[in-house]
Amino acid sequence: MELMHHYTTSTAHTLALRADMQDVWRTVVPQMGYEHPFVLHGILAVSAIHKAHLLPSQREKYLDIAAYHQTRGLEGFRTALFYIRDTNWKPSFCFSSTIVLYVCALAAHGSREPAAGTLSEILKLFVLTDLPEGSRRDYEFAVSELRKATILLAKAGSQSEVGMLFFFPYTVPSSIIADIQVGNPYVMVLLSYFALLLRVIQPSFWFLQGWSEQLFEDIEWRLKDNPRLWNVAQWPKQKAAELYK
């Protein structure tokens, strides 16, 4: 009861900037949760991790509660995926949206191992030698998608929403995801530009705080033995530092 009240009166208003999108989080998603328990667990996980952010003295308590609800929600989510159809996809979509929020917030405010955490969190969100021709095409497509995100954010300005950037991980080819998993140095350069765009929207959303800085650190660590690409990845980091001192 405490977490649901906190979600509807506080958390939901922090998940978007536009009033109509805030209303979706405040009314539509909870209604889906009342009908589908796994969605409700996702909502409560986000609410709990928001309280962990707001109440540092009770941080561990609420992180544990958030983890409990996330685990329970994932159990129902996996079952729902077995039966997903054109007519019943909405609950799964709602829960997957809460996963994004949970993972982002956990990476920003949870415990992390140095130089390891953020990239592994990106892999959770989006469940790299010389490039062969097929991979080159995939990278060119990924760059075009990042360019699209850049245009969206530039046009939106101070009203930039999370979705204007976070569509990117869902559109990149599977080969890019595989390259993140094995630590291909070329994908680290690509991620450095993603981190720069992340820095643009980060100030507006509590669950993104610290993400770009952590991602830049992880990228530098993974490129430490590749001076040429390490230097290439420095430009986005420097721009982020210049724009957001």
Short overview:
The protein has 245 residues and is mainly α.
Please provide the ordered H/E string of secondary-structure elements.
HHHHHHHHHHHHHH
> Approximately what portion of the residues adopt beta-strand conformation?
under 5%
Described by strand count, sense and barrel closure, the largest sheet is: none
The unreliable regions are 111-118, 125-131
Number of strands: 0
Helix run count: 14
Please state the structural category.
mainly alpha
What distance separates the N and C termini? 40 Å
Helix content: over 70%
Overall radius of gyration: 18 Å
Q: Strands, helices and their partners?
A:
Elements: H1 2-9, H2 19-35, H3 37-54, H4 59-82, H5 90-109, H6 117-125, H7 133-156, H8 163-166, H9 168-171, H10 174-182, H11 185-201, H12 211-222, H13 227-232, H14 234-243
Overview of the molecule:
- Keywords: Nucleus.
- Helix content is 74%, strand content 0%.
- The chain is mostly helical and 245 residues long.
- The longest helix is centred in the N-terminal third of the chain and has 24 residues, at 59-82.
- The protein is globular and about 55 Å long.
- Mean pLDDT is 87; it is low at 111-118 and 125-131.
Provide tags for this entry.
Sterol regulatory element-binding protein ECM22, mainly alpha, globular, 245 residues, DNA-binding transcription activator activity, RNA polymerase II-specific, 2 domains, Fun_TF
